[in-house]
Amino acid sequence: MSLFQKMVVGGAAPEPVYTDDVFRAYTYPGIGGDAAHNIGVDLQNNGGAVWVKDRDAPFNNVIADSERGGQSTLASNTDVAELTNTDTVKTLTTTGFTLGERFSVNTLGDAYIAWVFRQSPRFFDIVPYTGNGNAGLQLAHNLKCEVGMLFTKRLDSAASWAVYHRSLGAAYAMLLDYANAKIGPSTSLWGNNSSAIPPTTNNFTVSNNATMNADGGLYVAYLFAHEPSTQGQIQCGSYTGDGASIGALNNLGWKPQYIMIKSVATGHWVVFDTARSTLMDDGLLTCNTEAAEVTGVWYVAFSDNGFQPLTSSVLVNANGVEYVYMAIREDNK
Q: Rounded distance, CA 257 to CA 19, Å?
């Protein structure tokens, strides 16, 4: 391991910096009963989140994390408050996670994908917090680098998922559970109602909007890094669609294994990964709907240096439309 790899997380401690240590796109078959999934990622000691989607049937996108406990789940496609189910995600373990028998995560015979994010500086962090109703609430995080994308979700009441993306800036937000266009410009999203305040390498700021900061409200924030260095595992950026059947290459400097894309105009949040399709990805899932996986259409191609659209679809490459994305690198051990 190079000196840079040892130091990249901000200290000399030998924390992992390889993608497989902090992320997995993991496919599995439903068995209809309790199941332990040992994937080699320690979510118990390091913390993290598991995001599960049934590929064959219209069920919720289920998210559990270590800060709230495995049996407390959220759904990215709804504004519903946190639910407690003992038969969904049961525990997060030192080697992965265990599931119960609930249809959304473990229907007998259905195919599933689990996207597993381990907490680690320069990759992913989870911040639970209680709102105070005051504009400009500042909250600490542990990314130790630029925040690429940020989700907040109220836990104790119905409220949409608010999304910050670095390419849009702090004057704008999007909603993870809707296909709506971006919201803004506004100072009452990520700011103090007088000015928009972008996240720093140590903290982020929310207004007194009830979606993200009602007095006494309980919330969780998921933060994804933007690390453009040659050793980085994740990048968050944007591109403008050209409407071509084979679009322009988005150069990341490495081959991705996971890409989330959203038009800043109206359009679904779509996800592609190499666990479900290897080179030219025809496995489309949406974060904001229950829909099963869409196959048979090539949407994006993964290359050694990045990704490019393979269609003029409004989902990924309409002419003149801006898109934001989050890309995660293939394992680089």
A: 10
Q: Are 99 and 88 contacting, i.e. CB atoms less than 8 angstroms apart? A: yes
Strand order in the sheet with 256-263: 234-240, 322-329, 256-263, 270-273, 285-286
DSSP string of 105-170, one letter each residue:
HH-TT-EEEEEEEE-BTTTEEEEEEE--S-TTEEEE----S-EEEEEEEESSS--PPEEEETTT-T
**Residue 274 falls in which region: left (phi positive, over 0), alpha (psi -120 to 50) or beta:** alpha
The one-digit pLDDT tens for each residue of the chain (333 residues) are 444 444 444 444 455 579 999 999 999 999 999 999 999 999 999 999 999 999 999 999 999 999 998 789 999 999 999 999 889 999 999 999 999 999 999 999 999 999 999 999 999 999 999 999 999 999 999 999 999 999 999 999 999 999 999 999 999 999 999 999 999 999 999 999 999 999 999 999 999 999 999 999 999 999 999 999 988 999 999 999 999 999 999 999 999 999 999 999 999 999 999 999 865 667 999 999 999 999 888 899 999 999 999 999 999 999 999 999 999 999 987
Please answer whether residues 36 and 96 qualify as being in contact, where contact means their C-beta atoms are separated by less than 8 angstroms. yes
Q: Quick one: DSSP state of residue 194?
A: S
C-beta of residue 221 within 8 angstroms of C-beta of residue 119? no
C-alpha to C-alpha distances, 138 to 135, 159, 200, nearest whole angstrom: 9, 20, 10
| Inter-CA distances, 143 with 20, 129, 201, 222, 226, Å | 18, 16, 7, 11, 9
- Residues 163, 206: Cα–Cα separation, whole Å: 11
